[in-house]
Design a protein that fits this description.
The chain is built from 5 helices and 5 strands. The protein has helices at residues 12-27, 47-51, 59-77, 114-123, 150-162; strands spanning 32-35, 82-87, 105-109, 129-132, 165-169. A 5-stranded parallel β-sheet has the order 1-2-3-4-5.
């Protein structure tokens, strides 16, 4: 779509740019940095990207492998820092070509139903999980309307804590 920029993921300069963005945040003192793809992600259609990681047109897997590789590199250079990889849109499905993450990986879950959390707990996230709760904020409504009762929020927070969700942020203003 117009206005969307999609970089060529097979380009080593692009991969280095992504890594240097993580480094910039770590060097600024951040202990945990998010790594994910944008809304409306579209994979590059060049021949090199089609061949990337021998996954054909499976962009979910390409993104998982790319993000895992970046997290592995970050672990070598910054073993005390965390990379939170987004489980969002094209990466909502489990990776197929690997079955574990480096020790510095936290997963940022979009979906937080019991079934979704259980699936990712079985796969494993060494640093646990984070999430954002878009259903707690007033999307599509005037911002002064409550979306959930305090009891709902309390019960959801307890359920997420029991599932090793270490942080919750809001999506939206």
């Amino acid at each position: 779509s117009q206005g969307q920029i999609q970089f060529c993921a097979s380009n080593t300069e692009v991969q280095e740019m992504l890594y240097q963005d993580l480094v910039t945040h770590f060097e600024a003192g951040f202990k945990n940095v998010d790594l994910g793809q944008p809304d409306g992600f579209r994979g590059c259609e060049c021949e090199a990207c089609t061949k990337l990681y021998d996954t054909g047109s499976d962009w979910s897997e390409k993104v998982w492998i790319l993000h895992r590789n970046l997290a592995e590199r970050a672990y070598k250079d910054y073993p005390d820092r965390i990379v939170t990889i987004s489980v969002y849109a094209i990466t909502e499905t489990l990776p197929k070509t690997f079955n574990s993450f480096p020790p510095n990986v936290q997963l940022g879950l979009c979906g937080t139903s019991d079934a979704e959390i259980a699936e990712w707990q079985k796969f494993g996230a060494p640093q646990g999980f984070s999430t954002y709760l878009y259903y707690w904020c007033p999307n599509m409504m005037p911002r002064y309307f409550p979306m959930r009762t305090p009891l709902y929020v309390e019960n959801a927070a307890k359920r997420l804590m029991a599932a090793k969700v270490h942080s919750i942020s809001r999506d939206g203003n």
